[in-house]
Amino acid sequence: MIDTMRGVCFVMMLGGALAAQAEGTEAKAAPKSAVVAIARVQLSDAGKAALTAARDLAQRTKGLQSAERLAALQQAAAAYDRVVVDFAAEPAVAGPAAFAAAELWRQHGSPAMAEKGYLLAAEIDSHRFGARAWLGAAEMQQRQKQLERALVSFGQVITAEPGGAHAHDARLAQARLLEALGKPDAALETLRGALESARPGRQGIEAANLLALLLVRRGDFDGAERAIEHAQHEVSAAGDEDAATTARLQKLADTMSAKKALQRARDKQNQAGAEAARLDSARREGGG
Asked: Among 183, 201, 215, 282, which residue carries the largest CB count within 10 Å?
């Protein structure tokens, strides 16, 4: 996943009321009453000024390279961290600052600091940052090889936003992690759940691809074939979409890595079978 300035861009929207921020993914997933409550919150003048100052530092990181860029990222992230502390009593300021700091620490290559910021953002303002902040924390925990903690955090993403895009990403990541931890049965169950809950189209194809790959590695070629066929059904189900969308989905289905993996596995199986038959024939001829 490519690290971006998502958090910084988000904070740049803080010039006025928080209604604009409520348009984010988590706000859409939150109850309407919660969104209304967020929209009515007004930032203090001091809070606005603090966020603006930190934002300006973050903007200065653009175009910088190497050590100069790392130093600028550290300075901007630290500025947002100070805003979190100074405005702890003002969640509307501290929440966005914590998330922006996490994004900057992530780019800086400091996963522990980024994780801290994500967790703070999720705690301070769960309506706007819950699912994506937990997802960021889980990814940072993975980078630190804290795999069991990452599993729990991916689960928090799903709890916070069961039907959202972040939850879909979390389910797929959770399945990969479970397999890496030597828990293929749990990974298989997670992927099946991801396929069932996936939105028609891209999400369904992604889940079907990962499920097919896992089944290939388990030697269940027929099951993998069914998963691949399901991906094609996802394209067909999108028949009411515009032509460009359907074409993108078809390309995604056509280029599924599971297709090549299944073909290689079957070729290897066929070659092994042919070699076994040849050896058996040779033994028979030798014995005769």
From this structure: 215
